[in-house]
Design a protein that fits this description.
single chain, mainly alpha, two-stranded antiparallel sheet, 6 helices, 2 strands, 71% helix, 4% strand
Length: 140
């Protein structure tokens, strides 16, 4: 099969065969693959798959003079549930990355301390808001 493809590309002008060879031998960077995998994981953790596959899902609700952005039960969710939880998971992950980056700046203690404080704050806020959202859904 490879000989057949080589033979066919040999008949193509040189610039096109060079372009074909470049595309067929490229490898994605590990950074790009990592970002794509993490984005997919955060999307799935946030409930994105349910939002895509569910029928008749509402963005939010206005019932008896009150807006509901979080569905009051665990059995269902609004689109805003997905958006809120995905943003909170992303905020927690950014906090973890900031904590990790703080370890790389040991030779700059002020910058390392600031990154550590920012990371811990983001992680703590994401945890608190996610716990609050779960408590709202449980009706506590």
């Amino acid at each position: 099969m490879a000989k057949k493809v080589k033979k066919q590309t040999a008949q193509v002008p040189f610039s096109l065969s060079r372009w074909f060879r470049k595309i067929s031998t490229t490898q994605p960077s590990s950074f790009a693959v990592t970002i794509i995998v993490l984005a997919a994981a955060i999307f799935l953790f946030g409930g994105g798959l349910y939002t895509i596959t569910a029928e008749n899902i509402l963005p939010s609700a206005y019932v008896s003079g009150r807006f509901y952005f979080l569905y009051p039960e665990l059995s269902n969710q609004f689109i805003s549930d997905t958006v809120i939880s995905t943003l909170l998971y992303a905020m927690g992950f950014i906090g973890i990355l900031a904590i990790y980056q703080s370890t790389k700046h040991a030779y700059k203690p002020r910058q390392a301390y600031m990154m550590l404080i920012i990371g811990v704050t983001l992680l703590f806020l994401a945890y608190l808001f996610l716990e609050g959202a779960i408590n709202i859904k449980l009706g506590r």
